[in-house]
Amino acid sequence: MVNNNVSKNFHHANHFKNQTKSKKTIYMSLILTLGFALLELIGGIISNSLSLIGDSFHMLSDVLALGASAVAIYFSTKKPNNNFTFGYLRLEIITAFVNGLVLIAISIYIVIEGIIRIFHPREIDLKSMFGIALVGLIFNITITLILHNSLKDEHNLNVQSAIWHFIGDLINSIGVIISSIIIYYTGYVIVDVIMSIIISFVLFKGGYKITKTAFLILMERSSIDVDLVRKKLMNIEYIDNIHEFHIWHTNDEETNAAMHILLNNYDSSNNYQIINEVNKILKDEYKIDHTFVSIENVSINNHN
């Protein structure tokens, strides 16, 4: 007969997410961003403002980022199958990594274009520049708040990367407004270029942060001190050695641990209790609730 108390503690990782709110938020943001990106691009061309054109390209990259995020979120809600036994959660990390690289590429492009315009300045239509930037500021604040609000219920690295895109847009809109005011009173067109370069550094920082986080997850780097965990587990009675010990992250939420445990006293009745103790320490102290534990014995498994 199965012990009901034991069965209640028995668990597995789902390897998929409930992302209903994130999905709706991303889809709505995608449609709104596409419309405004086209408006800003046309406005930037008409006003001849590098800040507006750079921001419109950034927003078009937001459209691509949001589109990729929408695909990733869709797949992250799908359950594992025989071919993808860990599900599709890693896809959102891959998407976040690409989004981060796009941010970095855009920031570099804006700097290069800015340097070119220092030597070849162009006239700017201040009214169009200021008006579109003001609308852009309101738009970006709205989208940023919508995305940020969705994170309160559902954590998602893709949404975080999207927020960085819109924070960049928001700062850029502020920069364009400030630039247009300064240019209006001073006539220094170069202010537009300087502001766009400053903004590009902000974009680069955000892109680097997202790319680095995603890259480390893809490389299965552990954010937990493995040696410290091993020492803690070695205090469990009968454990003589722990090897093939790995801790890695499926995404920015799910952490896994796998290990071979060598026992120094052959008593198979202790095996399940030892595994339970290992799992309890990993879950309670390190928030690791998905484990793979293989029991080995000195008298049976040869470990020179």
Structure characterization notes:
- It is a single chain.
- The protein has about 300 residues and is mainly alpha-helical.
- It has a 3-stranded mixed beta sheet, with helices on one face.
- The model is unreliable at about 1-10 (pLDDT under 50).
- It has 9 helices and 3 strands.
- About 65% of the residues lie in helices and about 10% in strands.
- Its main location: membrane.
- Pfam families: Cation_efflux, ZT_dimer.
- This is Cation transporter.
- It is found in: Membrane.
- It is a multi-pass membrane protein.
Key features of this structure:
9% strand; mainly alpha; elongated; single chain; 304 residues
| Percentage beta strand | 5-15%
The whole-angstrom Rg is 26 Å
In percent, how helical is the residue content? 55-70%
Give the N-terminus to C-terminus distance in angstroms.
Answer: 40 Å
Give the overall average pLDDT: 78
Family: Belongs to the cation diffusion facilitator (CDF) transporter (TC 2.A.4) family. SLC30A subfamily.
Domain Cation efflux protein cytoplasmic: 224-296
Domain Cation efflux protein transmembrane: 27-219
Transmembrane segments: 26-46, 58-76, 88-112, 132-151, 163-183, 189-208
